[in-house]
Please model this.
Amino acid sequence: MKNNTFIKSTIILIIGGIITKVLGFIIRIIWTRIVGTEIISLYSLVMPTYSLLLTIASLALPTAISKLIAEEKSNNIKIIWTSTILILSINFIVVLIMLFSAKSIAINLLHEERCYYLLLAMTATFPIISISSIIKGYFYGKQKMIPTVIANIIEQLIRGLLIWLFVPILMEKSEILAASSLFIFSFIEELVSIFVSFLFLPKKIKINKSNLIIDKTTLKNILNISIPTVSSRIIGNIGYFFEPIILKNLLLLSGYTNEYILIEYGAYNAYTITILTVPSFFIIAISSSLIPEISKHYLNKKYLLLKRRLKEGILFSLIIGISYSLLLIFYGSKILYAIYKTSMGLNYINVLAPIFPLFYIESILISFLQAINKAKTTMIITTIGIIIKLIVLTIASLVHVGMYSLIISEIINILVVVSLNIYHVNKSIKNLS
Model:
């Protein structure tokens, strides 16, 4: 039965992911039709900042906790308690910095003063999301996926209800208030998610005073996993953070209007990327199940099982990715119009769809390397990819290809990162033989 844990965990996450994604899609359609393109564009401008700061605030703890609990290297309560104190300390610093710098980021970097209120609203969500991520990391480590799946579904239902009830009212009062409300709703969703997750925790938990002391060994183990992992994600998000800044400033310099940039960048994020990443919940499910499974097999030196799980993960991802990309190549316009009643972003979908099967296996390769203690390798690969992407984006933005400068840089980034990950995965497997 234990040999089937990976498959069972993945299937549970995929089923939950399908439900969550369908709900999320419906909610996104409702939201985009209520708020319109301009608010979507403003929201797209602050999302890179949000992703970067949330990555720092959460410190990749779900991965670290999942790995440590799966390996049973420390008392579970010590892991959770140490993680909670660590994450709250980091969140305090991040929130404090944002309170003083949000105005400057909005005006000087994003060149859009209205983003200030969105930046403040998003900052309020960091602590609660970080705490929620710790609990999810615990369940991933135990390979108990049902609590997370149920919590995610309830989150989406609450989000949909809040948007349906309050966003139209807020739009009448203030468009910026309506845009900012999405972050406030996130706070409420995560609070409910934490409550639901608590219902699935063991009922008889013995907590001693010794468990509530910061354990240096546990802290060291957490940081040894989380720092390389979060460094890799931070580097990726730094690239994402600078993406709209470089793009907007250089396109303005090249003679493109602010209106063109807002509309096209908004379409790229709201429609193109959303459509292209529909299978992401499959990939996230496989990756989340893969880390604790690979970690246990690596620790116990069961290398044949380790290789089998990796092959299964890559195979599942390729089947999903290639099938979906073919669907987009032949029916992309119909899918886009059926969902969003628009053709905006279709030209970018047509260019990116053939390359995206590689993007889907990237997460699997990274999860494998992290599970065998090669998080530093993934950090270096991510750094190389981001540097190349920003260089290509800068050059392409100056040669008057418009938003295609972003598309070209994205393709180059995917090719470089996936190629390097494949090389290091093959190298690691040979060393294990």
User: Anything to note?
Assistant: Residues 2-432 form one domain. The chain has a mean pLDDT of 84. The CA atoms of residues 197 and 203 lie 12 Å apart.
